[in-house]
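Supplementary Methods. Inverse-folding protocol.

Structures were first reduced to a C-alpha coordinate string of length 455. This string, shown here, constituted the complete conditioning input.
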Protein backbone atom coordinates (compact mmCIF):
# COMPACT_ATOMS: atom_id res chain seq x y z
CA UNK A 1 0.00 0.00 0.00
CA UNK A 2 1.62 3.30 -1.04
CA UNK A 3 2.04 5.95 1.65
CA UNK A 4 -0.72 8.57 1.84
CA UNK A 5 -0.61 12.32 1.28
CA UNK A 6 -1.22 14.33 4.43
CA UNK A 7 -3.46 17.31 3.71
CA UNK A 8 -3.43 20.12 6.28
CA UNK A 9 -6.22 22.62 5.63
CA UNK A 10 -8.51 24.34 8.12
CA UNK A 11 -11.23 25.31 5.66
CA UNK A 12 -13.54 22.32 5.71
CA UNK A 13 -15.04 22.70 2.22
CA UNK A 14 -11.70 23.22 0.54
CA UNK A 15 -10.27 20.27 2.48
CA UNK A 16 -13.00 18.03 1.14
CA UNK A 17 -12.55 19.26 -2.42
CA UNK A 18 -8.79 18.69 -2.31
CA UNK A 19 -9.18 15.25 -0.74
CA UNK A 20 -11.61 14.32 -3.51
CA UNK A 21 -9.17 15.54 -6.17
CA UNK A 22 -6.30 13.54 -4.64
CA UNK A 23 -8.40 10.41 -4.22
CA UNK A 24 -9.67 10.63 -7.79
CA UNK A 25 -6.03 10.60 -8.90
CA UNK A 26 -5.44 7.37 -7.04
CA UNK A 27 -3.60 8.82 -4.00
CA UNK A 28 -4.52 7.66 -0.53
CA UNK A 29 -4.92 10.52 1.93
CA UNK A 30 -4.75 11.58 5.59
CA UNK A 31 -6.18 14.87 6.79
CA UNK A 32 -5.63 17.42 9.52
CA UNK A 33 -7.34 20.74 10.19
CA UNK A 34 -4.42 22.32 12.03
CA UNK A 35 -0.66 22.07 12.28
CA UNK A 36 -1.01 20.63 15.79
CA UNK A 37 -3.26 17.88 14.50
CA UNK A 38 -0.87 17.25 11.61
CA UNK A 39 1.99 16.64 14.06
CA UNK A 40 -0.18 14.13 15.93
CA UNK A 41 -0.98 12.38 12.65
CA UNK A 42 2.73 12.10 11.92
CA UNK A 43 3.14 10.07 15.10
CA UNK A 44 0.53 7.62 13.83
CA UNK A 45 1.68 7.11 10.23
CA UNK A 46 4.31 8.42 7.87
CA UNK A 47 2.93 10.10 4.74
CA UNK A 48 4.65 10.28 1.35
CA UNK A 49 4.16 14.04 1.20
CA UNK A 50 2.58 16.91 3.15
CA UNK A 51 0.36 19.42 1.42
CA UNK A 52 -0.36 22.23 3.84
CA UNK A 53 -2.01 25.61 3.82
CA UNK A 54 0.28 28.41 4.99
CA UNK A 55 -2.37 30.19 7.02
CA UNK A 56 -3.66 27.94 9.78
CA UNK A 57 -5.18 28.62 13.20
CA UNK A 58 -2.43 28.29 15.84
CA UNK A 59 0.90 27.17 14.45
CA UNK A 60 1.35 28.43 10.86
CA UNK A 61 2.05 26.27 7.84
CA UNK A 62 5.60 27.64 7.61
CA UNK A 63 6.27 26.76 11.27
CA UNK A 64 4.89 23.28 10.65
CA UNK A 65 7.20 23.03 7.65
CA UNK A 66 10.24 23.97 9.80
CA UNK A 67 9.37 21.41 12.46
CA UNK A 68 8.74 18.69 9.90
CA UNK A 69 11.95 19.37 7.98
CA UNK A 70 13.94 19.25 11.24
CA UNK A 71 12.51 15.87 12.17
CA UNK A 72 12.06 14.31 8.72
CA UNK A 73 14.31 16.07 6.22
CA UNK A 74 13.36 13.69 3.43
CA UNK A 75 9.62 14.20 3.72
CA UNK A 76 8.52 16.41 0.81
CA UNK A 77 6.38 19.41 1.67
CA UNK A 78 4.20 21.56 -0.60
CA UNK A 79 2.67 24.71 0.81
CA UNK A 80 -0.37 26.64 -0.41
CA UNK A 81 -0.52 30.39 0.08
CA UNK A 82 -3.21 32.96 -0.53
CA UNK A 83 -2.99 34.87 -3.78
CA UNK A 84 -0.61 37.82 -3.41
CA UNK A 85 1.27 36.42 -0.41
CA UNK A 86 4.46 36.02 -2.36
CA UNK A 87 6.57 36.81 0.69
CA UNK A 88 5.06 33.86 2.55
CA UNK A 89 5.78 31.65 -0.42
CA UNK A 90 9.38 32.82 -0.57
CA UNK A 91 9.78 32.17 3.18
CA UNK A 92 8.38 28.69 2.73
CA UNK A 93 10.82 27.92 -0.07
CA UNK A 94 13.67 29.25 2.07
CA UNK A 95 12.49 27.06 4.94
CA UNK A 96 12.78 24.01 2.68
CA UNK A 97 9.42 23.56 0.96
CA UNK A 98 9.77 21.73 -2.34
CA UNK A 99 7.06 23.87 -3.92
CA UNK A 100 4.39 26.40 -3.21
CA UNK A 101 1.03 26.87 -4.87
CA UNK A 102 -1.07 30.00 -4.82
CA UNK A 103 -4.75 29.77 -4.08
CA UNK A 104 -7.12 29.19 -5.75
CA UNK A 105 -5.27 25.95 -6.36
CA UNK A 106 -5.36 24.74 -9.93
CA UNK A 107 -6.20 21.01 -9.82
CA UNK A 108 -4.03 20.13 -12.79
CA UNK A 109 -1.06 22.02 -11.42
CA UNK A 110 -1.51 20.49 -7.97
CA UNK A 111 -1.53 16.94 -9.28
CA UNK A 112 1.38 17.60 -11.63
CA UNK A 113 3.46 19.09 -8.80
CA UNK A 114 2.67 16.24 -6.42
CA UNK A 115 3.56 13.67 -9.06
CA UNK A 116 6.75 15.48 -9.94
CA UNK A 117 7.78 15.87 -6.30
CA UNK A 118 7.02 12.26 -5.41
CA UNK A 119 8.85 10.99 -8.44
CA UNK A 120 11.90 13.00 -7.43
CA UNK A 121 11.83 11.35 -4.02
CA UNK A 122 11.56 7.90 -5.60
CA UNK A 123 8.01 7.27 -4.36
CA UNK A 124 5.93 4.95 -6.59
CA UNK A 125 3.02 6.79 -8.23
CA UNK A 126 -0.52 5.69 -9.04
CA UNK A 127 -0.95 5.33 -12.83
CA UNK A 128 -1.70 8.60 -14.67
CA UNK A 129 -5.36 9.21 -15.25
CA UNK A 130 -5.60 9.71 -18.98
CA UNK A 131 -7.19 13.08 -19.36
CA UNK A 132 -8.83 13.01 -22.78
CA UNK A 133 -7.56 16.43 -23.77
CA UNK A 134 -3.89 15.57 -23.30
CA UNK A 135 -3.95 13.03 -26.15
CA UNK A 136 -0.89 11.24 -24.81
CA UNK A 137 1.20 14.41 -24.52
CA UNK A 138 3.08 14.10 -21.25
CA UNK A 139 4.58 17.19 -19.65
CA UNK A 140 3.94 19.87 -17.06
CA UNK A 141 5.98 22.73 -18.49
CA UNK A 142 4.33 25.96 -19.48
CA UNK A 143 5.36 25.12 -23.08
CA UNK A 144 3.31 21.90 -23.08
CA UNK A 145 0.34 23.56 -21.38
CA UNK A 146 0.37 26.34 -24.00
CA UNK A 147 0.67 23.76 -26.76
CA UNK A 148 -2.37 21.89 -25.42
CA UNK A 149 -4.35 25.12 -25.22
CA UNK A 150 -3.49 25.99 -28.84
CA UNK A 151 -4.34 22.46 -29.97
CA UNK A 152 -7.80 22.76 -28.40
CA UNK A 153 -8.23 26.19 -29.96
CA UNK A 154 -7.25 25.34 -33.53
CA UNK A 155 -8.36 21.71 -33.77
CA UNK A 156 -11.96 22.50 -34.81
CA UNK A 157 -10.86 24.71 -37.75
CA UNK A 158 -9.95 23.19 -41.14
CA UNK A 159 -6.90 25.51 -41.43
CA UNK A 160 -3.52 24.09 -42.37
CA UNK A 161 -0.95 23.84 -39.60
CA UNK A 162 2.83 23.89 -39.80
CA UNK A 163 4.61 22.29 -36.85
CA UNK A 164 8.25 23.18 -36.33
CA UNK A 165 10.69 21.69 -33.86
CA UNK A 166 13.89 19.68 -33.64
CA UNK A 167 13.93 15.97 -34.37
CA UNK A 168 12.21 13.89 -31.73
CA UNK A 169 10.36 16.77 -30.04
CA UNK A 170 6.97 15.18 -30.70
CA UNK A 171 5.81 16.77 -33.97
CA UNK A 172 3.96 13.68 -35.13
CA UNK A 173 2.40 13.21 -31.70
CA UNK A 174 1.16 16.83 -31.78
CA UNK A 175 -0.22 16.32 -35.31
CA UNK A 176 -2.14 13.28 -34.00
CA UNK A 177 -3.35 15.29 -31.02
CA UNK A 178 -4.68 17.93 -33.41
CA UNK A 179 -6.46 15.24 -35.35
CA UNK A 180 -7.94 13.58 -32.28
CA UNK A 181 -9.15 16.91 -30.89
CA UNK A 182 -10.79 17.83 -34.19
CA UNK A 183 -14.21 16.86 -35.60
CA UNK A 184 -12.18 14.66 -38.00
CA UNK A 185 -11.16 12.30 -35.21
CA UNK A 186 -13.27 9.43 -36.60
CA UNK A 187 -11.71 9.87 -40.06
CA UNK A 188 -8.25 8.57 -41.05
CA UNK A 189 -4.96 10.07 -39.89
CA UNK A 190 -2.44 9.42 -42.64
CA UNK A 191 1.25 10.20 -42.18
CA UNK A 192 3.71 10.63 -45.01
CA UNK A 193 7.40 11.35 -44.67
CA UNK A 194 8.48 13.54 -47.60
CA UNK A 195 12.15 13.10 -46.73
CA UNK A 196 12.33 9.31 -46.61
CA UNK A 197 10.92 8.67 -50.09
CA UNK A 198 12.92 8.72 -53.36
CA UNK A 199 12.16 11.82 -55.36
CA UNK A 200 10.31 10.14 -58.21
CA UNK A 201 7.97 8.33 -55.82
CA UNK A 202 6.77 11.38 -53.87
CA UNK A 203 4.23 12.44 -56.46
CA UNK A 204 2.68 9.02 -57.00
CA UNK A 205 2.59 8.42 -53.23
CA UNK A 206 0.77 11.68 -52.51
CA UNK A 207 -1.59 11.85 -55.50
CA UNK A 208 -1.93 8.15 -56.33
CA UNK A 209 -1.92 6.73 -59.88
CA UNK A 210 -3.98 4.86 -62.43
CA UNK A 211 -2.98 1.55 -63.88
CA UNK A 212 -0.46 2.09 -66.70
CA UNK A 213 0.44 5.62 -65.58
CA UNK A 214 4.10 4.61 -65.62
CA UNK A 215 6.17 1.47 -66.09
CA UNK A 216 5.40 -0.83 -63.21
CA UNK A 217 1.98 0.69 -62.45
CA UNK A 218 0.21 -2.61 -62.87
CA UNK A 219 -2.82 -1.53 -60.84
CA UNK A 220 -4.47 1.70 -59.75
CA UNK A 221 -3.55 3.03 -56.35
CA UNK A 222 -5.02 5.90 -54.30
CA UNK A 223 -2.52 8.38 -52.91
CA UNK A 224 -2.14 9.60 -49.34
CA UNK A 225 -4.34 12.66 -50.03
CA UNK A 226 -7.16 10.40 -51.12
CA UNK A 227 -6.61 7.93 -48.26
CA UNK A 228 -6.80 10.73 -45.72
CA UNK A 229 -10.32 11.49 -47.08
CA UNK A 230 -12.02 13.85 -44.61
CA UNK A 231 -9.33 13.20 -42.02
CA UNK A 232 -5.83 14.61 -41.63
CA UNK A 233 -2.78 14.22 -43.86
CA UNK A 234 0.45 14.67 -41.90
CA UNK A 235 3.30 15.68 -44.19
CA UNK A 236 6.49 15.13 -42.20
CA UNK A 237 9.80 16.71 -43.28
CA UNK A 238 7.91 18.90 -45.73
CA UNK A 239 11.04 21.05 -46.07
CA UNK A 240 12.68 18.19 -47.96
CA UNK A 241 9.97 18.05 -50.62
CA UNK A 242 11.40 18.47 -54.14
CA UNK A 243 10.57 21.83 -55.77
CA UNK A 244 8.68 20.24 -58.66
CA UNK A 245 6.42 18.49 -56.15
CA UNK A 246 5.95 21.70 -54.16
CA UNK A 247 4.35 23.34 -57.24
CA UNK A 248 1.91 20.46 -57.60
CA UNK A 249 1.00 20.38 -53.94
CA UNK A 250 0.42 24.14 -53.94
CA UNK A 251 -1.92 23.83 -56.91
CA UNK A 252 -3.87 21.05 -55.20
CA UNK A 253 -4.19 23.13 -52.01
CA UNK A 254 -5.35 26.19 -53.92
CA UNK A 255 -7.86 24.42 -56.12
CA UNK A 256 -8.92 21.97 -53.41
CA UNK A 257 -8.67 19.18 -55.96
CA UNK A 258 -6.05 17.02 -57.63
CA UNK A 259 -5.76 14.14 -60.09
CA UNK A 260 -4.18 10.72 -59.80
CA UNK A 261 -1.20 10.24 -62.13
CA UNK A 262 -2.29 8.97 -65.52
CA UNK A 263 -5.80 10.44 -65.49
CA UNK A 264 -7.57 13.80 -65.75
CA UNK A 265 -10.39 12.81 -63.40
CA UNK A 266 -10.34 15.35 -60.56
CA UNK A 267 -10.56 14.18 -56.94
CA UNK A 268 -11.77 16.57 -54.24
CA UNK A 269 -9.25 17.43 -51.58
CA UNK A 270 -11.06 17.28 -48.25
CA UNK A 271 -8.26 16.37 -45.86
CA UNK A 272 -6.75 18.85 -43.45
CA UNK A 273 -3.03 19.29 -44.04
CA UNK A 274 -0.72 19.31 -41.05
CA UNK A 275 2.89 19.67 -42.15
CA UNK A 276 6.05 19.47 -40.07
CA UNK A 277 9.68 20.34 -40.49
CA UNK A 278 12.79 20.08 -38.35
CA UNK A 279 14.78 22.37 -40.61
CA UNK A 280 14.45 26.16 -40.61
CA UNK A 281 11.99 26.49 -43.45
CA UNK A 282 12.26 30.29 -43.64
CA UNK A 283 15.94 29.79 -44.47
CA UNK A 284 14.98 27.29 -47.17
CA UNK A 285 12.55 29.91 -48.53
CA UNK A 286 15.27 32.60 -48.50
CA UNK A 287 17.62 30.25 -50.33
CA UNK A 288 15.02 29.36 -52.94
CA UNK A 289 14.75 25.72 -51.90
CA UNK A 290 11.19 26.08 -50.66
CA UNK A 291 8.42 28.00 -52.40
CA UNK A 292 7.32 31.02 -50.46
CA UNK A 293 3.68 30.73 -51.62
CA UNK A 294 3.50 27.11 -50.43
CA UNK A 295 5.09 28.11 -47.13
CA UNK A 296 2.32 30.67 -46.51
CA UNK A 297 -0.34 28.13 -47.52
CA UNK A 298 0.94 25.58 -45.03
CA UNK A 299 1.87 28.00 -42.27
CA UNK A 300 -1.66 29.34 -41.65
CA UNK A 301 -1.28 28.19 -38.05
CA UNK A 302 2.31 27.87 -36.89
CA UNK A 303 3.00 25.58 -33.94
CA UNK A 304 6.47 25.44 -32.46
CA UNK A 305 7.56 22.66 -30.11
CA UNK A 306 10.58 23.74 -28.05
CA UNK A 307 13.43 21.25 -27.55
CA UNK A 308 13.40 19.28 -24.30
CA UNK A 309 16.36 21.27 -22.89
CA UNK A 310 14.15 24.38 -22.94
CA UNK A 311 11.40 22.68 -20.93
CA UNK A 312 13.32 20.65 -18.40
CA UNK A 313 10.31 20.45 -16.10
CA UNK A 314 8.94 17.83 -18.52
CA UNK A 315 11.90 15.49 -18.07
CA UNK A 316 10.88 13.91 -14.74
CA UNK A 317 7.28 13.18 -15.79
CA UNK A 318 8.49 11.83 -19.15
CA UNK A 319 11.04 9.57 -17.44
CA UNK A 320 8.32 8.20 -15.13
CA UNK A 321 5.95 7.76 -18.05
CA UNK A 322 8.41 5.82 -20.21
CA UNK A 323 9.60 3.76 -17.23
CA UNK A 324 6.03 2.63 -16.63
CA UNK A 325 5.38 2.06 -20.30
CA UNK A 326 8.53 0.03 -21.00
CA UNK A 327 8.19 -2.11 -17.84
CA UNK A 328 4.63 -2.91 -18.77
CA UNK A 329 5.52 -3.67 -22.40
CA UNK A 330 8.24 -6.16 -21.47
CA UNK A 331 6.35 -7.56 -18.49
CA UNK A 332 8.68 -6.40 -15.73
CA UNK A 333 7.57 -5.15 -12.33
CA UNK A 334 7.50 -1.37 -12.01
CA UNK A 335 10.98 0.14 -11.63
CA UNK A 336 12.04 3.23 -9.75
CA UNK A 337 14.81 5.73 -10.30
CA UNK A 338 17.02 7.36 -7.66
CA UNK A 339 16.77 11.14 -7.22
CA UNK A 340 20.46 11.40 -8.23
CA UNK A 341 19.82 9.64 -11.52
CA UNK A 342 16.81 11.88 -12.10
CA UNK A 343 18.93 14.98 -11.53
CA UNK A 344 21.38 13.73 -14.16
CA UNK A 345 18.48 13.18 -16.57
CA UNK A 346 17.29 16.72 -15.93
CA UNK A 347 20.72 18.27 -16.38
CA UNK A 348 21.44 16.61 -19.72
CA UNK A 349 20.71 18.54 -22.92
CA UNK A 350 18.98 15.74 -24.93
CA UNK A 351 20.06 16.61 -28.47
CA UNK A 352 17.74 13.85 -29.72
CA UNK A 353 14.93 15.15 -27.51
CA UNK A 354 12.11 12.88 -26.36
CA UNK A 355 12.90 10.10 -28.80
CA UNK A 356 16.41 9.86 -27.34
CA UNK A 357 15.03 9.88 -23.80
CA UNK A 358 12.51 7.18 -24.66
CA UNK A 359 15.14 4.95 -26.28
CA UNK A 360 17.55 5.40 -23.38
CA UNK A 361 14.90 4.44 -20.82
CA UNK A 362 14.09 1.32 -22.82
CA UNK A 363 17.77 0.35 -22.93
CA UNK A 364 18.20 1.00 -19.21
CA UNK A 365 15.13 -1.02 -18.26
CA UNK A 366 16.09 -3.97 -20.43
CA UNK A 367 19.69 -4.04 -19.15
CA UNK A 368 18.79 -3.36 -15.51
CA UNK A 369 19.30 -6.12 -12.94
CA UNK A 370 18.41 -4.49 -9.63
CA UNK A 371 14.99 -2.93 -10.26
CA UNK A 372 16.21 0.62 -9.59
CA UNK A 373 17.82 2.96 -12.09
CA UNK A 374 20.83 4.46 -10.38
CA UNK A 375 23.25 7.15 -11.37
CA UNK A 376 25.97 4.55 -11.92
CA UNK A 377 23.83 2.91 -14.61
CA UNK A 378 23.70 6.03 -16.75
CA UNK A 379 25.74 6.41 -19.94
CA UNK A 380 28.83 8.64 -19.85
CA UNK A 381 27.25 11.67 -21.52
CA UNK A 382 24.70 12.00 -18.71
CA UNK A 383 27.45 11.88 -16.07
CA UNK A 384 29.34 14.65 -17.83
CA UNK A 385 26.30 16.90 -17.76
CA UNK A 386 26.16 16.71 -13.97
CA UNK A 387 29.67 16.26 -12.63
CA UNK A 388 30.49 13.34 -10.35
CA UNK A 389 28.44 12.28 -7.35
CA UNK A 390 27.40 9.15 -5.52
CA UNK A 391 24.13 7.31 -5.51
CA UNK A 392 21.74 7.17 -2.66
CA UNK A 393 19.35 4.27 -3.02
CA UNK A 394 15.64 4.85 -2.48
CA UNK A 395 14.45 8.25 -1.42
CA UNK A 396 17.89 9.08 -0.06
CA UNK A 397 18.78 12.01 2.15
CA UNK A 398 17.59 15.44 1.24
CA UNK A 399 18.76 16.12 -2.27
CA UNK A 400 20.04 19.69 -2.35
CA UNK A 401 21.04 20.08 -6.03
CA UNK A 402 17.71 18.58 -7.06
CA UNK A 403 15.88 20.94 -4.77
CA UNK A 404 17.80 23.93 -6.04
CA UNK A 405 17.05 22.96 -9.60
CA UNK A 406 13.41 22.49 -8.74
CA UNK A 407 13.06 25.79 -6.94
CA UNK A 408 14.85 27.82 -9.61
CA UNK A 409 13.01 26.08 -12.43
CA UNK A 410 9.68 26.47 -10.69
CA UNK A 411 10.19 30.21 -10.27
CA UNK A 412 11.33 30.59 -13.88
CA UNK A 413 8.36 28.67 -15.21
CA UNK A 414 5.90 30.58 -13.05
CA UNK A 415 7.24 33.84 -14.48
CA UNK A 416 7.52 32.59 -18.07
CA UNK A 417 11.30 32.71 -17.79
CA UNK A 418 11.43 36.36 -16.82
CA UNK A 419 14.61 36.34 -14.74
CA UNK A 420 13.91 39.57 -12.88
CA UNK A 421 10.49 38.39 -11.74
CA UNK A 422 11.81 34.94 -10.90
CA UNK A 423 14.53 36.52 -8.74
CA UNK A 424 11.92 38.58 -6.86
CA UNK A 425 9.85 35.45 -6.37
CA UNK A 426 12.80 33.65 -4.85
CA UNK A 427 13.86 36.64 -2.79
CA UNK A 428 17.36 36.78 -4.32
CA UNK A 429 19.11 39.22 -6.65
CA UNK A 430 19.07 38.70 -10.39
CA UNK A 431 22.80 38.09 -10.30
CA UNK A 432 22.37 35.38 -7.66
CA UNK A 433 19.65 33.83 -9.77
CA UNK A 434 21.93 33.70 -12.79
CA UNK A 435 24.68 32.08 -10.71
CA UNK A 436 22.20 29.45 -9.59
CA UNK A 437 21.02 28.93 -13.15
CA UNK A 438 24.64 28.38 -14.13
CA UNK A 439 25.12 25.92 -11.24
CA UNK A 440 22.28 23.78 -12.41
CA UNK A 441 23.21 23.93 -16.07
CA UNK A 442 20.49 26.28 -17.26
CA UNK A 443 23.04 28.83 -18.42
CA UNK A 444 26.42 28.39 -20.05
CA UNK A 445 29.58 29.86 -18.47
CA UNK A 446 29.58 32.87 -20.80
CA UNK A 447 25.85 33.53 -20.24
CA UNK A 448 26.40 33.86 -16.53
CA UNK A 449 28.46 37.04 -16.88
CA UNK A 450 25.64 39.21 -18.19
CA UNK A 451 23.78 40.93 -15.45
CA UNK A 452 22.17 43.77 -17.27
CA UNK A 453 19.48 42.86 -19.78
CA UNK A 454 16.04 41.36 -19.28
CA UNK A 455 15.13 37.84 -20.25
N1 LIG B 1 5.17 15.13 -24.79
C1 LIG B 1 5.32 13.83 -25.05
N2 LIG B 1 4.76 12.91 -24.24
C2 LIG B 1 4.92 11.59 -24.49
N3 LIG B 1 5.61 11.10 -25.50
C3 LIG B 1 6.19 11.96 -26.35
C4 LIG B 1 6.06 13.37 -26.18
N4 LIG B 1 6.72 13.97 -27.18
C5 LIG B 1 7.24 13.00 -27.94
N5 LIG B 1 6.93 11.78 -27.47
C6 LIG B 1 7.36 10.48 -28.01
O1 LIG B 1 8.68 10.66 -28.50
C7 LIG B 1 8.86 9.97 -29.74
C8 LIG B 1 9.25 10.96 -30.81
O2 LIG B 1 8.13 11.79 -31.11
P1 LIG B 1 7.69 12.15 -32.61
O3 LIG B 1 7.94 11.02 -33.54
O4 LIG B 1 6.32 12.72 -32.56
O5 LIG B 1 8.76 13.31 -32.89
P2 LIG B 1 9.03 14.13 -34.23
O6 LIG B 1 9.28 15.51 -33.81
O7 LIG B 1 7.91 13.89 -35.20
O8 LIG B 1 10.35 13.48 -34.72
P3 LIG B 1 11.04 13.61 -36.19
O9 LIG B 1 11.26 15.06 -36.47
O10 LIG B 1 12.31 12.86 -36.01
O11 LIG B 1 10.08 12.95 -37.13
C9 LIG B 1 7.55 9.25 -30.02
O12 LIG B 1 7.62 7.94 -29.53
C10 LIG B 1 6.53 10.06 -29.23
O13 LIG B 1 5.43 9.27 -28.86
Amino acid sequence: MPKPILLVEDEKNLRHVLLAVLNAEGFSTMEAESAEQALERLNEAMPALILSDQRLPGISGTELLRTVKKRYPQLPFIITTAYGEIEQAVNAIKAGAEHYLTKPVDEGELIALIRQTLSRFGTPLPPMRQEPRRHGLIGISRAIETLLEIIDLVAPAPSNVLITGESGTGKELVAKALHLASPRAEQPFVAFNCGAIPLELVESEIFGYERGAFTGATRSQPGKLELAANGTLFLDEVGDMPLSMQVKLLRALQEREFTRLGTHQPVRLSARIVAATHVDITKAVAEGRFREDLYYRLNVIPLHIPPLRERRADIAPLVQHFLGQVCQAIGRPAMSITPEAMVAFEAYDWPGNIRQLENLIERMVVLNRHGVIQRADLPAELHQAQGEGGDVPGAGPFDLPALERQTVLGALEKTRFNQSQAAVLLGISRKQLRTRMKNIGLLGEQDGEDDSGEG
